[in-house]
Specification:
Layout lengths: L4 H11 L12 H11 L5 H10 L2 E3 L3 E3 L11 H19 L11 E6 L4 E6 L8 E6 L5 E4 L3 H9 L14 H4 L5 E3 L22 H5 L6 H10 L3 E4 L8 E7 L10 E11 L2 E6 L12 E3 L2 H12 L13
Antiparallel strand pairs: 1-2, 1-7, 2-3, 3-4, 4-5, 5-6, 8-9, 9-10, 10-11, 11-12
Length: about 325
């Protein structure tokens, strides 16, 4: 099976806008250190999810464990050993799949509150690992020949009906206000953390202090504060801005050139559109994404311009 991962990435960004300031996001050195500790490289699409979304909950149900989280209940390294110890014997009794670190063994990386788990079947290189969905209550399992980004897109679209309380778009789930919420906003109890509470002191101050962006000037200032390069461009569309990965140094006239990937953000009938600018040849061309708020558009645009996002090879590719 092969597919265009970049298409799935953009679908996920559209359906589940990531936070502009993800909590517990990874970075290259930390990933390298963690992979040495756990004893294996991990799939690039999983690392993209953690880098882009940080710690959080999809549809109020599904949590991907994050190796950089300070919360034991969702820290990947702290969950792997007890889960494998608890279910290792059961696996051998019910179906012939070994546990990690045995060759091809199951490595848990997420789940929900009802002891439903997601595992990688660690057979072959990480980019070709399949997902095993396991329900501990009845011992049922199913193997999906896909990576986690494709799994999320399929589940949110309702095409994986037997996972996590039914289809991702079923009536009881779709009414939740956001498809993805940072973990500090949606605890296991299902209640947000009060910013004045003791638990709030564990969060980065930027998470508690930043208000949603509503104006173009705020977005430009924020992007530039994060090391990117953003500027207004009314000649493209009224109220629009361009944002790129970075910028060159100023030339003799004081001008700077956009470098890396570039996308446009523009208002349109009460929504914000994020789109490629193919004529400028910076980054992939893609179908425009539409968001109900500028804050959501900023999170998606940030993910699209940052480098190293599209390096997962399709399953079955050489």
């Amino acid at each position: 099976m092969s597919y265009d991962l970049r298409y799935d990435l953009r679908i996920l960004l559209s359906e589940a806008p990531p936070p502009s300031l993800p909590v517990d996001a990874g970075e290259e050195k930390r990933w390298n250190d963690f992979q040495r500790t756990i004893g294996t490289a991990l799939p690039a699409d999983y690392k993209w999810l953690i880098n882009t979304y940080g710690s959080g909950v999809f549809r109020g149900i599904l949590v991907l464990w994050n190796p950089f989280s300070k919360d034991k209940e969702i820290n990947l390294l702290k969950q792997v050993t007890p889960v494998l110890k608890s279910f290792g014997q059961r696996f051998r009794g019910e179906f012939p799949l070994p546990c990690f670190p045995e060759p091809g063994g199951l490595l848990p990386f997420g789940g929900d509150q009802d002891r439903v788990y997601l595992f990688w079947k660690t057979l072959g290189p990480p980019e070709q690992w399949h997902i095993v969905h396991y329900k501990s209550d009845d011992g049922g399992y199913r193997i999906y020949p896909m990576g986690i980004v494709e799994f999320l897109v399929q589940w949110i679209a309702g095409r994986i009906p037997d996972s996590f309380l039914g289809p991702g778009n079923c009536r009881t789930v779709v009414k939740r206000d956001l498809i993805f919420r940072p973990f500090h906003e949606y605890r296991v109890s299902g209640r947000p953390i009060d910013a004045s509470s003791e638990n709030a002191n564990r969060l980065p101050r930027t998470v508690l202090e930043r208000s949603p962006m509503t104006t173009r000037d705020e977005a430009i200032e924020w992007f530039n504060s994060q090391g990117h390069y953003a500027f207004e461009i009314d000649t493209y569309a009224e109220g629009a801005l361009f944002v790129s990965t970075s910028a060159s140094d100023e030339d003799e006239t004081g001008s700077r050139a956009a470098l890396g990937n570039l996308v446009a953000l523009r208002p349109d009938s009460g929504r914000w559109i994020v789109e490629s600018v193919p004529a400028l040849g910076m980054g992939d061309a893609f179908e425009a994404l539409s968001f109900t708020s500028l804050d959501m558009a900023v999170g998606a645009a940030k993910a699209l311009i940052e480098p190293g996002r599209h390096d997962r090879k399709p399953i079955g590719s050489q």
